[in-house]
Amino acid sequence: MSSSKVIHAFYNDDEVVLDAVKKVKAANHHIEEVFCPFPVHGLDKAMGLAPTRIAITSFMYGITGLGIAIWLTYYTMIADWPQDIGGKPSFSWAENMPAFVPIMFELTVFFAAHLMVITFYMRSRIWPFKKAENPDPRTTDDHFLMEIELHDNEEELTALLNETGAVEINVVDKH
Amino acid sequence: MYQFSGKLKMFSIALIVLGVLGIGIGFYNAPSTVEEAMEMVSSADHGDGHGAEASHGTASNEEHSSQSHSNEKHSSGTHSTDDVHEENHDEVTKDSHQSDDHSVNEAHGGNHDDAHAEHVFHQLQNRPWSAVYVALLFFLGISLLVLAFYAIQRVAQAGWSIVLFRVMEAITANLVPTSIIMLVVIVLTAMHGNHLFAWMGEGVFDKTSENFDPIVYGKRAWLNVPWWVIRSVFYLLVWNAYRMLIRRNSIKEDTVNDGYKLYKKNYNMSVVFLFLFMITESMAVWDWIMGLDPHWFSTLFGWYVLATLLVSAITVIAFVTIYLRSKGYLPKVNDSHIHDLAKFMFGFSVFWTYLWFAQFMLIWYADIPEETTYFVLRFTEYKTLFLSMLVMNFVFPILLLINSDFKSRPWFVIIGGLVILAGHYVDLFIMIMPGTVGGSWSFGIPEIGATFFFIGIFIYTVFSAFAKADPVPKGNPFLHESEHFHYFNIEHHSEEDNQH
Question: How far is it, in rounded angstroms, from Cα B163 to Cα B169?
Fold first, then answer.
């Protein structure tokens, strides 16, 4: 199958790779993936990726954390073992609410942050001890790599990529 | 170059005239004798906009005034403080108001009525002064914080904000008239032209006087009139000196072409200013606002007021920028600049909430009477304002400005900004009013007049200052970066409208 062949174009500048992505997209080629040593702002938009929905999950995790904090403070401080908070033995959650605000804040942030990171790992299919998927170790240092699937158009693509300022172009078999 | 249009000039002058009228009516209506004051309280006092408060107005007046009255006399101070303090626990209702009020009255004994009448009289006399004072500090503070924000841009060598420099400089021009008015107020206050500051009252430092106040007496090294005046004048001088120099040098930067020598000099000057600013701002706030409640103290107060004024200042920068851009005088300002200003509005709203809550929670938690009086007074007499301020300054900006797209739309920024400005005016209002007019507050002609007056001055000085310089600071080395500033995550709507 010819589609197992891919072309790897290397770049050494984030601005150049961003422009290259736009040019390749304009020439109607499908970009499989771009590997970067650091996040490049605007790259997802240039590649035509759908906007991330992680903010929505983060919001829901935050609400969950807030709910758990409210339940936790209510159960431990008011219901199960009523506490005299700051010399104000009202035994009402609402009247002692100011004392619980830091807990509510912290648990909201804790849930939102940790669960968002875990969600991101799961969606990106990465976990501890997983073998790296990036095709060239230089993409973890100072090079950017654009991967495009080949459909018997090697010469045309190579010419186009050369034009966009690629510093190295390889055709490899993808297993 | 921008031309200060005649229409806008007329508008600002009209606002000033209206404002002077409003302030004048406020002073004219203030009682000149105790009898007049009592008449006002007993008859039509609460017809003028108290709203929900009206129902228990008189009772709460008495209750409050006996409280702060005894604060001044202090000998009976702990009594009433404790009473009010208890109230807070019980979630005050109208009934408990009145019953507590009775007990306080009884505790105070026979001559209470006369002393109380005189106290209300002083509060009503203070009202037009306080109305001017709130608006004055609000506009002085905003102009000062715009200056500080501008200095931060210079010290941080920020790239994005260069195209906004002339807008910020123009706003700081408002520091001059507000400082002059502040100076007049300071001199008049020191000469006992008003009773805004309880600790400046007669006999407070005199051990033989019945007004003797041992707590204020203990603070006499700091709280004495000459030292207060010297400090106040010093703050104003420092701020105005920096403003004058940096404005002159900034315009010079456009043409000087000296290998950025002047630019570096301005950088150094801004570093020195920021150092002095952090100290003087905090001290000015103690002197001008915290001094109104001389028994109370909060170590966080300087920061808290800084946050209030900073978020208002950035909102004002955004407003003036959006206005001038819509008129086409700021072609280099794009949606990303507005987006950044809105981000600061959002961020500093949260910062304000953080500081407000940090101050509130510690006082609430520790529950020490000399600290809680501050919030008890605000929570009983100013409850509606107190709670609505939290919504306006925290909940509303969070909900409206959390969306990235909304932050680059001028209309959303203006709606959010109006609420933020109103909220922080209310914040300043309930910082100042309880210490000066106590329960005898209302929001009417004097307050609106004073606000109009200072808005008028603001428009006049800011736009005439903006007309005096090139809207683009051509000599700044980061100008190019600022012109091309583009936050990756937003579309530039207005540019598409203009250019395509």
Answer: 11
